[in-house]
Design brief:
Helix 2 packs parallel to helix 3. This protein is an alpha/beta fold. Strand 3, helix 4 and strand 4 form a beta-alpha-beta unit. It contains six helices and four strands.
Length: 161
């Protein structure tokens, strides 16, 4: 039996907002023991970037809110793509009076203050930084590609912000 009232999930489909989740690279500077990636795919290809720009040019004039999420492997291994897409999106949104912000899921290893400042200036406002417990536990589970510790650098990056 169908209820004549729309279900709550149906109301979440809003043509005035757009959220893109962009996988900018499969590459990673860690070798986590539980990782499922094979690291065969490199960075996002130029043709895909062009497609994103074309799509944004078409959709931004029709929307009032744009959110772009970045992840990967480790997305900060392709900062250029994040900077380029974010710059393009921010400019287009400003020109069309569209609210824009971004977020990123990162291991935090390359999130130094300079990178954070640049990302923040491009409206990346939410950061999911992953740590796996104590230093000892984290470093066992999430070593750098060279086998070295990652915990202290991540923590220092976070404390610098």
């Amino acid at each position: 039996m169908f209820n004549s009232q729309p279900k709550q999930w149906i109301l979440s489909f809003n043509k005035k907002s757009l959220r893109l989740i962009i996988f900018v690279t499969e590459q990673c500077n860690f070798r986590c023991v539980y990782c499922y990636e094979d690291f065969k795919i490199g960075k996002i290809e130029a043709e895909v970037l062009e497609g994103i720009y074309n799509y944004l040019e078409k959709r931004i004039p029709e929307i009032s809110l744009l959110q772009v999420s970045y992840f990967g492997g480790e997305p900060l291994m392709n900062k250029k793509a994040i900077y380029d897409i974010s710059s393009f999106a921010k400019k287009m949104c400003e020109e069309n009076n569209v609210v824009y912000w971004g977020d990123i899921t990162t291991n935090g290893y390359s999130l130094d203050f300079k990178t954070f400042e640049r990302l923040f200036s491009l409206n990346l406002r939410t950061y999911q930084v992953t740590l796996d417990g104590s230093k000892e536990t984290h470093d066992k589970l999430r070593p750098a590609i060279n086998g070295k510790s990652t915990f202290d650098k991540i923590l220092n990056n976070l404390l610098d912000h």
